[in-house]
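#help-structures

NK: newbie question. if I give both the sequence and a SMILES, will the prediction place the ligand too? trying with zinc ion
OV: yes, paste both and it writes out the complex. here, I ran yours:
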Amino acid sequence: MISVLVSRITPEGILLEGEDKFNFNGDVSENILSAPLIKYKLRISLIDNGIVATGSASTIITCTCDRCTDVFDKTIINNEICHFYEKTNKNEIDLTDDIHEDILILFPHKLLCNDLCKGICFKCGKKLNVEKCICNIDSEDASTWNSLNKLKL
Ligand SMILES: [Zn+2]
Ligand SMILES: [Zn+2]
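OV: that's the protein plus ligand as structure tokens.
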């Protein structure tokens, strides 16, 4: 839980820093294996009718590549966090959902180990980042050669 006690906030503002368990639900993508922690560093300031939280939060997600299925880690950072909370009679303000949401909205739709990831060959199952296969070339060449052979005959 990420929270702040209003009574602790000094006129110059305070720094709120720490880690929180990240309970994202797997619906985001089944290829995200884990995102254990959110790290946050927020500046909490008092203003007339409430408080403002600004700063950054980040997490490292472990996921499988949509193309080649390799497992890799990806860092997600939001440096533009800014939330306003109106003053109520409660002393404790809960920032948890907002900060988690700030990270969730940055989860990529496509999870690629590398933008240039070549993926897996549909025919032979080789990982094309690691080794080349001749499936595509083979079929094209084969047909070309076949027609050439026919011409010769
Ligand atoms: Zn990949
Ligand atoms: Zn192949």
